[in-house]
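Bug report (template v2)

What were you trying to do?
Predict the complex of my protein with adenosine-5'-triphosphate.

What happened?
Run completed; filing so the output is reviewed.

Input:
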Amino acid sequence: MARSDLLLSVVRAGASGDQAALRSSVEAIVAEERSKNHNVLADRLQRALHTVSVASPARSPSASHAGRDTILESEPRQRIDDLILPLPVARQVQQLVEEQHRADLLRANGMQPRHRVLLSGPPGNGKTSVAEAVAEALAVQFFTVRYDALVGSYLGETNTRLARLFDYARTVPCVLFFDEFDSIGKERGDIHETGEIKRVVSFLLMQIDQLPSYVVTIAATNHAELLDRAVWRRFQLRLGLPQPSSDALAVFLQRQFDSWPETVGTRASTVASKLGAISYAETLEFCQTVRRQHILSLGGRSIKDILKEQLELWATRVGTNEVNAARSGKAAPSPE
Ligand SMILES: Nc1ncnc2c1ncn2[C@@H]1O[C@H](COP(=O)(O)OP(=O)(O)OP(=O)(O)O)[C@@H](O)[C@H]1O
Ligand SMILES: [Mg+2]
């Protein structure tokens, strides 16, 4: 919500005696002031807010906090520098962080920082990590939307919960993360359900449009092709996180090897080419297995030997080719 709208909603809430609305509007202003580092003003506003008596028993004491149970709050730990990102992605993430950090300057010139990001790519290549790293870089809370708590079985219930979720999110500068974003818009067989889902999606998009720029909304999907154009249009930054190239994988492996107590004695690029097409998450799992076996050997085996053995075992694993072939009823291509 733009600042003038916030001020208007404070006046309207005050004039009509709607204390819950007054509280949530003032909380939004407090959050906005904090995001600009105007902490003295934010503290004064907050103290003034405490003198507002609690809403009538018919209303919840703080309407904005009712949305808290649809959100998982966590301290972001992932750092951007620890991620290996395609150059254009790294550059755009940097720009997003800079625009948020220097939002004051932008606002003074009538502009808002960008704050709506869509991340797409196959599993295990950094979508959740990037969202968390943006929150870490901005030193704000990381909120993950809980669909299990959001989707209600009664007509209209989901939209009510969504409205509460957004009310809560706008009380504080944060990263609001929608994982598996395509699952929300996926059409179902039942025609009534489809109508309801369409209402939910259009309400969700409207809410995302109206979020203040200190709430950075990040949506992630493995299936960008399933999202319709109305959804795409909402996102100012659309970043692809593909499976790593062989070179990127070698860099990732080298970082892992460097953290081990013993020299590996095998080139990271050789290991990368043996691992083939694989996600960062799987590579990490592979490296951790090598480390586990090395620890358990109590120094009896060299890490080079263990790595060699694990690479042989790796070659025998069930891969996505086999799984896909089994799903489509075809035989998997035999290894050369
Ligand atoms: N680009 C990357 N650079 C470095 N490490 C990465 C990268 N991507 C993923 N990882 C490692 O893999 C782990 C899992 O990645 P993450 O959860 O971010 O993937 P994701 O794309 O969200 O997967 P999913 O689609 O399954 O949710 C991370 O915790 C991190 O250790
Ligand atoms: Mg994820």
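What did the reviewer find?
The first helix runs from residue 3 to 16. The chain has three domains: 3-50, 65-240, 246-319.
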